[in-house]
Amino acid sequence: MSQERLLELWRPLHDLRMTRAVLEWDQETMMPPGGAAARARALATLAGEVHARLVDDALHEAALRARDAAEEGSVEHAQALVALRDVERARRVPARLARELAEATSAGLVSWQAARKESDFARFAPDLERIVRLKEEEAQAVADGGRPYDALLDEYEPGTREADLVPLFERIRAELSPRIRAVAESGVVVDESPAQGQFPEAHQRALGLAASRAIGFDHDAGRLDLAAHPFCTSFSPRDVRITWRFQEDDFRPALYGILHESGHGLYEQGLPLEWEGQPLGEAAGLGIHESQSRLWENAVGRSRGFLRWLAVPWREAFGAPMPDVEELWPALHTCRPSLIRVEADESTYDLHVLVRFELERRLFSGELATADLPAAWNGAYEEVLGLRPANDAEGVLQDIHWAMGAFGYFPTYTLGNLMAAQLFAAAGAELGDLEAAFAAGEFAPLREWLREKVHRHGRRWRSAELVERASGRPLTPDDHLARLAEQVETVYGVTVGGATG
Amino acid sequence: MSQERLLELWRPLHDLRMTRAVLEWDQETMMPPGGAAARARALATLAGEVHARLVDDALHEAALRARDAAEEGSVEHAQALVALRDVERARRVPARLARELAEATSAGLVSWQAARKESDFARFAPDLERIVRLKEEEAQAVADGGRPYDALLDEYEPGTREADLVPLFERIRAELSPRIRAVAESGVVVDESPAQGQFPEAHQRALGLAASRAIGFDHDAGRLDLAAHPFCTSFSPRDVRITWRFQEDDFRPALYGILHESGHGLYEQGLPLEWEGQPLGEAAGLGIHESQSRLWENAVGRSRGFLRWLAVPWREAFGAPMPDVEELWPALHTCRPSLIRVEADESTYDLHVLVRFELERRLFSGELATADLPAAWNGAYEEVLGLRPANDAEGVLQDIHWAMGAFGYFPTYTLGNLMAAQLFAAAGAELGDLEAAFAAGEFAPLREWLREKVHRHGRRWRSAELVERASGRPLTPDDHLARLAEQVETVYGVTVGGATG
Question: Which of A33, A307, B365, B468 has its CA 20 to 30 Å from the CA of residue B237?
Answer without folding.
Answer: B468
